[in-house]
Amino acid sequence: MGGMSLEKSPPHSRQAAPALEARLIALVRQSPWLMQALLAARSLGLDAWCIGAGAIRNLVWDDIHAKATPSALSDVDLAYFDASDLSPQRDAALQARLAQLLPELPWEVINQAGVHLWFERCFGHAVPPLTSLQEAIASWPEYATAVAVWLDRAGQIHVLAPHGLEDLFSCTVRRNPIRVSIETYRQRVSQKRYAERWPRVRVLEA
Fold this sequence. Notes:
CATH class: Alpha Beta
Shape: globular
CATH architecture: 2-Layer Sandwich
Number of helices: 9
CATH superfamily: Beta Polymerase, domain 2
Strand content: 5-15%
Helix content: 25-40%
CATH topology: Beta Polymerase, domain 2
């Protein structure tokens, strides 16, 4: 881990605090680029979708660290769930539409209903199909990144946080064991340089 200090992981609470959810929604509304992204994603007409992972993590941690400009994102993750069409062409078509609407954003569109088709090839072990968008988010690599938001037709922002928001707002990086191996977790921690980019971040031992 390149000498990185890892802390022992205490028991994890899954209860999301309403105050944290309200705080997250306020941050999303104050982010012009993210609101534009949510509007663009909503225009696709998908039944179950969200923007989450790094986009939400960076938003919160940048605010906690009082960063004047948003941290760079390697991608803006649009996750959706549609078991009726698992073709990669569908993802590509949706991503192309978003790129036309907001070409400045590094979109990545993934149908969570089809993750099991390529997961073993990418991560070395097979997994069963996911059954819902909520279950998909619950399987994302760390609890702090297993958070997403979506925008309904009335303009209300909804938070999806199956493991709560405590890790996100306490700047805690903790492995989510549902699908992520210890090896993959350690690789992510090394590659993401969490504590270097956000000094208040605590990285917990896998």
